[in-house]
Amino acid sequence: MPPQGKDKLTGLSTTPTRKPPKPRKRRKRTNLSDKKRKFVLYYMGEAQGVATHAARLAGYAHPEKTGSKLLADPLVQNELDRARRAENKKSIMSRNERMERLAEIATENASDRTKAIDILNKMDQTYVKRIEVDQRIGFSLDTMTTADLEALVIQLGFIKKGKA
Asked: Are both 108 and 69 inside the same structural domain?
């Protein structure tokens, strides 16, 4: 136990003081009753966003009144928001999932094959071919005709003669 009394140098008390109590954090109520949880599940699912129908399916006695009251309940609103966020996460495909699905479409469905391949090529940036031109060539590209540009591309070796 530390010595009690006064410090000789400072004259302050050496008696230990108690720390003030920590303030209690207010906890948000997050527990829904089973019936309210059923309401949220039915509202997001089978009832397709119709509160009265969801309340009826969840087993409430007066669904016409209860449905709108439940939608005003902050706990129910929080749970609906959480369920919507979870649903959005499920519905968004990753890049790889999109590419896999497009590859399946390209191999299975002949009518959608071209469009699927086109989208895949755009995702992979297959269509983008960048040509860097040194501006020291001595003439302006703005004044060149199509034939002049084709000849330049062949001369630079980007296209073989006869394939232009």
From this structure: no
| Distance from C-alpha of 155 to C-alpha of 128, rounded to nearest angstrom | 21
**Vertex 109: Cα angle to 96 and 121 (nearest 5):** 40
Which tens digits make up the pLDDT trace of 26-63?
A: 655 568 899 999 999 999 888 888 999 999 999 999 99
Q: Is the pTM of this model over 0.70?
A: no
* Residue 163 belongs to domain spanning: 129-164
Provide the phi-psi class of 80: left if phi over 0, else alpha when psi is between -120 and 50, else beta.
alpha
| CB-based contact 75:36 (threshold 8 Å) | yes
Nearest to 59 by CA among 39, 77, 40, 44: 39
Same domain, 47 and 80: yes
Helix (H, G, I), strand (E, B) or coil at 13: strand
Q: Are 82 and 30 in contact (CB under 8 A)?
A: no
The dihedrals phi and psi of 25, each to the nearest 5 degrees, come to: -80, 140
Contact residues for 56 (Cβ-Cβ < 8 A; gap 6+): 63
Residue 131 and residue 70: Cα distance in Å, rounded?
62
pLDDT at position 75: 94
